[in-house]
Design brief:
The complex is a heterodimer. Chain A is an alpha+beta fold. Chain A is built from 20 helices and 23 strands. Chain A folds into 3 domains: 189 residues, Histidine kinase-like ATPase, C-terminal domain (Heat Shock Protein 90, 2-Layer Sandwich); 248 residues, 2-Layer Sandwich (Ribosomal Protein S5, domain 2), CATH 3.30.230; 191 residues, MutL, C-terminal domain, dimerisation subdomain (formyl-coa transferase, domain 3), CATH 3.30.1540.20. In chain B, helix 6 packs antiparallel against helix 7. Chain B folds into 3 domains: 113 residues, DNA Polymerase III, subunit A, domain 2 (DNA Polymerase III, Chain A, domain 2), CATH 3.10.150.10; 118 residues, DNA Polymerase III, Chain A, domain 2; 112 residues, DNA Polymerase III, Chain A, domain 2. Classes of the chains: A alpha+beta, B alpha+beta. The complex binds adenosine-5'-triphosphate and magnesium ion. The site of magnesium ion (MG) has 5 residues of chain A, from helix 2.
């Protein structure tokens, strides 16, 4: 019994389209904020309640919509952004389909309040289903869109939404990405009454990164800069110690549009080569500028996917730029920078904004919303640092001339390398991410060079650790290790944590179980929820080397432990189970990483523990064998370096 | 206070007690060495509140009194002075004058009143043991104690005294060392306590080479007291219930073999070399009269070695952490050892051949 073909009513087709564009509250935020950006806003405020299901409000100070065009805003395929099909190949706005607002309005109640600069009055549109009511209304210049009762008319879709917490995370992710794409715009996100994000909008990417991830990451940022005939690559990558267990801090933009593209992630990660431990992902914000005619963004309604004409070329350029940036960076956390220029042969050029942005300088951002000087500032102009007097006396607080910027901040000239690379690869080769894009010897050379460059003194840190002696222990927490070019401070807990973490992961990877049996078992009582988690992950827990036996109710007998666990084992296992309980379906570190990190954290030597000289020696020898001696599984630095040059300078010897 | 003494004797006293002094910033007075001059001697003392060491040094006391001097100051001075005799004098203002040979030092002292009261010995009658016996008891057991603080009661050695027998037991819950020894006289009632390993290793330093010299000691509810060679050491005992070691000792192994101790030690050390990153684990397999030891590490390679043994019982295979074998084999004295292997995941044992008083129990690792 076949039904006759019908043309769908507008309501139905809107809802179908909405299904593609509006998956969840975060999609609404994305569409509304992109509209605000397209409207030239300098300040955008987003307010969210009930995980976005209850209310989403986006307020901008952009151009607004003239009252006589307002009725078109909610019509499908009505857009002010393109006019002809050929425009599709030169899209410079974020929106172009004329689909977002009608889609949103078909699944939620929407109020659209807008005023252009030259109109005296604004106009308020209230949309509910097919009905649109409009009335004149006083309003500031710009647009305010309020979306309430999401999916009120499509209960089936509502059911697919995740918990408020999860939806909030999606929203924060989306807005973070957008804020990083637009450092010239000040973004503020308030969820359930709490401010979650506040970027200065000064036009400075590094400053924006600091606002997003916290200022402590600033010293760990390395600028990326690469050129190609079709455009270029810029942005920042984090030193390996800022790496995370998932890709959540890898953000890529193509022509200002946030994209989630595996090839681009792979290119960035390949740029780190061996600097990242297995299953660690870098902090990176990479902007790709490319001739719009060489990409196709119209492959998916949500526009986060993208296609390149020449994938392999983009891959190589991104990878090379990341790699050469890291090659130049000093990867041991520096403590104070030597005066004078960097090592010979190093370009001493630093972009102006970087010079102004010495990582540890104390400064304040101009306040937002007070007739905003930040809002009016030209996007490319860096904000001037404001010295905070009380911090003046601290160690690194001295202004440095442009040419003496942090070595880690030197930009990288990718041009020469690029040409060499181009010669090595004829067109028509398979896409580079399918196979290692460098010849084996070249890859090896790059790896070696990177490790050498990592301390910027021509020494491999691991080799140093393998031979160095520990001069002493500071505050029962830091090992003092003299090296030829200064002094290393090694955090004993974090170092040991890294050693244990890699040991545990190693064994896991080689599916090698080593379970030290105990003379008398320990008993362990867990909460019902944790007991269930333990049973769910019993295989993994046994693979780590624990011997666990259910003992009735929520009690367990602990008969064996991994050899690293030399202390009381119950808290270690409890922490692992707690960590495993956090696993949710969406991403995050894998189960073994979580478990290994929890084990390492609990079993490692504690800070404040006085250590025997043999123990300290053993520790740095073991650290010499790890893949990543720079950061613990949680990203805290292991080694902090005090440069001999800096010491000499302070003694007035330079 | 004013006294004259032999510099060497004072130095000996200082180096014995200074080990109990701490460098905790929180209580500066604990860095000090307490000196009291009275009668014909000096009484020296230092403490970190857990452990105190006191000793007497002969001296001619001109004027009795007391003083506390920083150990970091006093010790190097007395060590470096050249005269045979040392003259010490404290003025009213608390400044000490130290003279010896051509040198003259003026040093500040700390306020003696602030020095914590030393623990009183709450003794009901001390037990007596020979130094040699006590030293062996400690050497054979203390290494097996736990080193981390998460289970305080395992960071000490359990000492048990009953009639004329003394037993020391230490365990970190993966292995256990047990040794039995003899007291010089019988005691009237059994007593036990957990003595910190640190106190025992300090005691080892204090004991001299004379195996027959006598140590007087006692373990009470709250403290362990040791007296030897004019030195008194008092340590806090660790609270807590020590695990029941008798149950652990009771089991037997289906496979036993004998071999040279040093040979076995060397073989385990060699085979363990292959483990570069991981915790070294050695597999033991006895087949007929052959013991094979092996170890492997994925990215390094493997090691294999065979030894001839005298075996009783079945062929068996098991694995242990190398450390748990080497530590005990190094601590032992006998030429030959007997190794017992448990089947499945049951405990193994190592005992010296010809010495029934020592048993070491070790749990295997499951390798998969
Ligand atoms: N915040 C805003 N400020 C000014 N104009 C706006 C704003 N939001 C929407 N508009 C106007 O409404 C039109 C429709 O917006 P809508 O988001 O539905 O489509 P679009 O942005 O053109 O394309 P896309 O569907 O790809 O987002 C836009 O083209 C724009 O002219
Ligand atoms: Mg839009």
């Amino acid at each position: 019994m076949r039904a006759p073909i019908r043309i769908l009513s507008e309501d139905v087709s809107n809802k179908i389209a909405a299904g593609e564009v509006i998956e969840r509250p975060a999609s609404i935020v994305k569409e509304l904020v992109e509209n605000a950006i397209d409207a030239g806003a300098r300040r955008i405020r987003v307010e969210v309640r009930g995980g976005g299901k209850e209310l989403i409000r986006v307020v901008d100070d952009g151009s607004g919509v003239p009252a006589d065009e307002a009725h078109l805003v909610f019509m499908r395929h009505a857009t002010s952004k393109i006019a002809t099909a050929s425009d599709l190949f030169h899209i410079s706005t974020l929106g172009f389909r004329g689909e977002a607002l009608p889609s949103i309005a078909s699944v939620a109640r929407v109020e659209f309040l807008t005023r252009t600069p030259d109109a005296d009055d604004g106009i308020l549109l209230k949309v509910e289903g097919q009905a649109i009511a409009s009335s004149p209304c006083g309003a500031p210049v710009g647009t305010q869109v309020t979306v309430t009762d999401l999916f009120y008319n499509t209960p089936a879709r509502f059911k697919f939404l995740k918990s408020d917490t999860t939806e909030r995370r999606f929203i924060a992710d989306v807005l973070t990405a957008i804020a990083l794409a637009h450092p010239g715009i000040a973004f503020r996100l308030v969820m359930e009454g709490r401010e979650v994000l506040n970027t200065p909008g000064s036009g400075n990417l590094k400053e924006t990164l600091g606002a997003v991830y916290g200022r402590r990451i600033l010293p760990g940022l390395v600028p990326v800069d690469g050129l190609a005939p079709w455009g270029g690559v810029s942005g920042y990558v984090g030193k390996p110690d800022l790496a995370k267990g998932n890709r959540s801090a890898e953000t890529v933009f193509v022509n200002g549009r946030w994209v989630q593209n595996r090839m681009l992630y792979a290119a960035i990660e390949r740029g780190y080569e061996s600097l990242l431990a297995h299953r660690r992902f870098p902090l990176a914000v990479v902007h790709i500028t490319i001739d719009p005619s060489l990409v196709d963004v119209n492959v998916h309604p949500a526009k986060t996917e993208i296609r390149f004409r020449d994938e392999s070329d983009v891959f190589r350029t991104v990878m090379k730029a990341v790699r050469s940036a890291l090659l130049q960076a000093d990867l041991v956390s520096p403590l104070g920078q030597p005066q004078g220029s960097g090592p010979a042969g190093r370009p001493d050029k630093a972009p102006v904004d970087d010079a102004a942005l010495q990582p540890k300088l104390a400064w304040s951002f101009p306040p937002l919303g007070k007739g905003g000087s930040a809002a009016k500032r030209a996007p490319e102009e860096p904000s001037a640092p404001v010295w905070a007097g009380e911090e003046r006396g601290t160690y690194t607080l001295r202004p440095q001339p442009t040419g003496m910027a942090d070595r880690a901040l030197h930009p990288v000239e990718a041009v020469g390398a690029q040409e060499e690379e181009d010669r090595a690869h004829s067109p028509g080769e398979p896409p580079p991410h399918a196979s290692l894009p460098l010849a084996a010897s070249e890859a090896e050379r790059a790896r070696v060079a990177m490790e050498q460059g990592s301390v910027a003194h021509g020494y491999d840190p691991r080799e140093l650790l393998a031979t160095a002696e520990v001069a002493g222990q500071l505050a029962a927490t830091y090992l003092l290790v003299p090296v030829p070019f200064g002094l290393w401070l090694i955090d004993q807990h974090v170092a040991h944590e890294r050693v244990l973490y890699e040991k545990a992961l190693d064994r896991w990877e080689q599916s090698q179980v080593v379970a030290q049996q105990l003379l008398t078992p320990y008993t362990l009582r867990l909460s019902p929820a944790l007991a269930a988690t333990l049973m769910d992950h019993l295989d993994a827990i046994e693979a780590m080397g624990f011997g666990v036996e259910p003992f009735g109710g929520n009690d367990f007998l602990l008969r064996a432990v991994p050899p690293e666990v030399t202390g009381r084992p119950e808290p270690v296992l409890t922490q692992i189970v707690e960590e495993l309980a956090l696993i949710v379906s969406e991403g995050g570190p894998s189960r073994k990483e979580r478990a290994a990190a929890a084990l390492a954290c609990r079993a490692a030597i504690k800070a404040g523990e006085r250590l025997q000289p043999e123990v300290m020696r053993q520790l740095i020898r073991e650290l010499a064998t790890v893949e990543n001696p720079y950061a613990c599984p949680h990203g805290r630095p292991i080694i902090v370096q005090v440069d001999l040059k800096e010491i000499e300078r302070r003694f007035g010897r330079s | 206070m004013e006294f004259v003494c032999q510099r060497e004797e004072l130095l000996r006293g200082i180096s014995i007690v200074e080990r109990a002094a701490t460098s905790k910033e929180s209580m500066q007075i604990l860095e000090g060495i307490y000196i009291r001059a009275e009668g014909d001697h000096l009484h020296l003392a230092a403490t970190d509140l857990e452990l105190s060491i006191e000793c007497d040094v002969p001296a001619t006391v001109v004027q009795q009194g007391e003083a506390v001097l920083g150990s970091k100051v006093l010790s190097p001075i007395v060590r470096k002075l050249v005269g045979d005799q040392l003259v010490y004098r404290t003025s009213e203002s608390g400044v000490a004058q130290i003279e010896s040979g051509p040198s003259h030092f003026t040093v500040h002292t700390m306020v003696a009143d602030e020095f914590p009261a030393l623990p009183e010995v709450e003794s009901t009658g001390l037990w007596r043991i020979s130094q040699g016996e006590l030293r062996r008891l400690i050497r054979h057991t203390a290494f097996a104690a736990a080193t981390d603080d998460s289970r305080p009661f395992l960071t000490g050695v359990f000492v048990e005294v009953e009639q004329d027998e003394i037993r020391l037991v230490a365990t970190d819950s993966s292995r256990l060392a047990f040794r039995r020894g003899k007291l010089l006289e019988e005691t009237d009632r059994p007593r036990s306590g957990i003595v910190p390993v640190r106190a025992l290793s300090e005691l080892m330093r204090i004991l001299d080479d004379d195996d027959d010299a006598v140590v007087e000691f006692e373990i009470t509810e709250s403290q362990a007291v040791f007296r030897a060679a004019g030195v008194q050491m008092i340590s806090r005992v660790i609270e807590g219930q020590f695990p029941d070691y008798r149950r652990v000792l009771a089991t037997d192994q289906p496979t036993r073999f004998r071999l040279d101790r040093i040979q076995l030690l060397a073989a385990v050390e060699r085979v363990a070399l292959i483990a570069r990153r991981s915790t070294p684990v050695v597999r033991l397999a006895v087949k007929g009269e052959t013991l094979s030891l092996s170890s492997r590490e994925a990215e390094v390679g493997q090691a294999y070695e065979e030894l001839t043994v005298v075996k009783e019982g079945e062929d068996l295979e098991t694995a242990y952490q190398a450390r748990f074998l080497t530590e005990v084999l190094r601590a032992m004295d006998s030429d030959q050892v007997e190794v017992g292997l448990g089947d499945g995941l049951r405990q193994g044992s190592i005992t010296p051949v010809g010495d029934e008083n020592y048993v070491y129990i070790v749990m295997p690792v499951r390798v998969g």
